[in-house]
Design brief:
This protein is an alpha+beta fold and 566 residues long. Among the domains are: 56 residues, no CATH class; 209 residues, no CATH class. A 4-stranded antiparallel sheet has the order 6-33-32-31. The N terminus and C terminus are likely disordered. InterPro entries: CUL4-DDB1_E3_ligase_receptor (IPR052254), WD40/YVTN_repeat-like_dom_sf (IPR015943), WD40_repeat_dom_sf (IPR036322).
Length: 566
């Protein structure tokens, strides 16, 4: 039996394959005409493929792969050529078919009609949203329409506060003298204002009055002052002018309170006023003094004290205020430079000569932070109380995780040597503010350990520059030895204002400042208080109101501004 061979087409693999055949009708001479038959089959197959493609889409250059790519992206545009659609992916024109069937779905008239309807619907929706139609408007659009100038309430409050600081006057609005019954105030070491704006607490160096028969001994005392408001009416223009020079427009007076803590024969190293709980606020301070031991040697004795501040607390019962948890004294024979309070863990951070220490006020147990071996100049706790940041003498700022058993250093912030003041923000838990001895203020990202921005126009000749961060942590203040008080925004580091803080004759005294948005308990009565010696320099802030009226035009929006002083 003779086997003849012929070639068959494999459509799946698009190649010829050699298949043996047992058909006796083929002879050897027919093998020579196989090439001509293959060419005929190829031409017939091409005609059939062209007819199939005309059912759905006819491309100008018959590119099937590009058609499938275009279908996957489904980017169709109506072209300026009648009867064709433009594909922005393949950058080719395709003929629009009235009907389509089969697996290759092309560009049809119904597709373009749907695109036109969708565009018309979106245009009608935007027009309805512009008219605040409740049936079509969506929730973010409604909230944005209710916001002033497209900003939320927190941003609006920040802009109002920054605008008031930009218009601060060079000269104080009025100056009041702080005094007590038996002592004269010499210089201020610390000052803060309560949340309601009615109480001022601070630490002053005091001197005994000579008319009392005492010697001119010096010491320090924690004193509270009450800010009282009264409205005075004067019918005489001359008397009104004289009284307005020493009083504010609301008739505010600063009078001393009964609370005071005696710090005679001690040097105040650091002080802060922090809430222990929701009801009681305590003053936390550390003092040092030189004592003579029983072996006739000089030694340093440091005391860390906690005392309640009744004027800042909501509890007035003396029995509760005298509880041991609110009244404690801890002594050590080491030099203490800084303290901080951790409300979440009820611990006090103490900066010593070679390391830091944690003191639990409930159990009075102490825990040392190892791995430093250098003096701690400043420290602060994070908002959740799990991290402790320490400014090390001659080295960078380090961070210790209090959740770990050994409490080792877990992070180091480079280029922050000799940081005398640092603060972890409560409103921004991932931000840390540092100020070194050169005067450079940096705002750090705790997670990335990189500064977001820095302030270089600050002057710091002290070991610790008088810095003040307002209650809402929007504004940072600094009073330096050149007699200038400066304010910056914690949002972007922009300098908002600078004005003289005290006279050139009192450069030796360090001014302390505080900011209150409701001085005297009057909402909106924002003011800056600067304590220099026994005087309170009050700079009232005048709000500049910017009224914006929007006028809509067909081409866009135009805004008209009107500035008014309140």
């Amino acid at each position: 039996m003779e086997y003849n061979k012929r070639y068959r087409r494999d459509r799946g693999m698009n190649r010829r394959r050699h298949v043996p055949s047992s058909n006796n009708s083929f002879v050897a001479e027919e093998a020579s005409s196989s090439d001509e038959q293959l060419r005929k089959r190829r031409r017939r197959r091409n005609r059939n493929n062209a007819l199939r493609s005309n059912r759905g889409m006819t491309e100008v250059d018959h590119s099937t792969n590009e058609q499938q790519l275009s279908h996957g992206n489904a980017i169709v545009e109506e072209s300026d050529i009648p009867g064709f659609a433009y594909d922005s992916v393949t950058k080719r024109y395709y003929r629009v078919q009235p009907q389509s069937s089969g697996p290759n779905i092309g560009f049809r008239e119904s597709d373009l009609r749907g695109i036109r309807q969708h565009k018309s619907f979106m245009a009608e929706r935007e027009r309805c949203c512009a008219k605040s139609c409740p049936s079509v408007s969506w929730l973010p659009k409604i909230m944005q329409n209710r916001e002033l100038r497209g900003s939320n309430i927190s941003r609006l409050t920040r802009l109002v506060t920054e605008g008031a600081l930009r218009g601060v006057r060079k000269e104080p609005s009025y100056v009041q003298k702080g005094y007590t019954d038996i002592e004269a105030l010499h210089s201020c070491h610390y000052m803060d204002i309560s949340v309601d704006g009615k109480t001022i607490v601070g630490c002053w160096s005091v001197k005994r009055r000579r008319d009392e028969g005492w010697r001119d001994t010096c010491g320090a005392r924690i004193i509270c002052f009450k800010v009282t408001a009264g409205f005075f009416f004067f019918f005489n223009a001359l008397s009104w002018k004289i009284e307005s020079e020493c009083r504010s427009k609301f008739g505010l007076k600063i009078r001393s309170s009964t609370y005071c803590a005696n710090l005679i024969k001690s040097n105040l190293m650091d002080i802060c006023v922090e809430p222990i709980n929701d009801n009681v606020t305590c003053a936390l301070y550390v003092t040092t003094q030189t004592v003579v031991t029983m072996h006739n040697r000089f030694s340093t004795l440091s005391r860390v004290c906690i005392e309640p501040v009744a004027e800042f607390s909501s509890v007035y019962d003396s029995t509760e205020l005298h509880l041991p948890s609110y009244n404690m004294t801890w002594t050590c024979q080491e030099y203490v430079r800084a303290i901080a309070f951790n409300r979440n863990r009820m611990e006090i951070g103490i900066g010593l000569e070679e390391n830091a220490m944690l003191l639990n006020i409930s159990t009075e147990q102490t825990t040392r932070i190892s791995g430093l071996e250098k003096g701690v100049m400043s420290l602060t706790f994070s908002a959740d109380g799990n991290l402790l940041f320490m400014g090390v003498m001659g080295d960078n700022v380090v961070c210790s995780d209090l959740r770990m058993s050994n409490r080792d250093v877990v992070a180091t912030y480079n280029d922050t040597k000799n940081v005398g003041w640092l603060k972890a923000l409560r409103t921004k838990p991932d931000m840390l503010v540092t100020e070194d001895h050169v005067g450079i203020i940096k705002f750090w990202d705790i997670r990335m350990r990189k500064p977001q921005f820095k302030i270089e126009d600050n002057i710091n000749p002290y070991n610790k520059t008088p810095m003040h961060l307002e209650k809402d942590e929007r504004i940072l203040f600094s009073a330096t030895s050149d007699g200038i008080t400066r304010a910056w925004s914690t949002y972007n580091g922009e300098k908002l204002c600078e004005f003289p803080s005290h006279g050139p004759r009192n450069l030796s005294r360090k001014p302390k400042l505080a900011y209150a948005s409701n001085l005297g308990g009057l909402s909106g009565n924002a003011a800056i208080l600067i304590a220099t010696g026994s005087d309170f320099h009050v700079h009232e802030l005048t709000l500049t109101l910017v009224i914006i009226s929007s006028m809509s035009y067909s081409s866009g929006k135009a805004y008209h501004k009107d500035n008014r002083n309140i």
